[in-house]
Amino acid sequence: MHFGYTTYKIKLYAINSLKEKRSVVKRLINDLRKNFNASIVETGAHDSRDWLEISVGMITRTRKEIDALFESVESRIINWNGLEVINVESEVW
């Protein structure tokens, strides 16, 4: 069994309020949970309307499987409109 988590620091564009940010974050997290069956939480930058930090955690049988899932999650986030991934930090055990 392998456990891993990845933290994404994301720049948000065209967000005018924290309420609008929460709407975008909620849609993104729900989409990722639905498509990847992963644990996802907003881990930082709660009071910033321009920045978002989310962490994704998964447990899989093989290292290859978890690496592929994290690549798919990152690709999904990158293709989300109005977001830019600035930093990615990962750990797998």
UniProtKB/TrEMBL annotation:
Classification via Pfam families: DUF503
Q: Which InterPro entries match?
A: DUF503, TT1725-like_sf
PANTHER family found in the cross-reference section: DUF503 DOMAIN-CONTAINING PROTEIN, HYPOTHETICAL CYTOSOLIC PROTEIN
Q: What is this protein called?
A: DUF503 domain-containing protein
Origin species: Kosmotoga olearia (strain ATCC BAA-1733 / DSM 21960 / TBF 19.5.1)
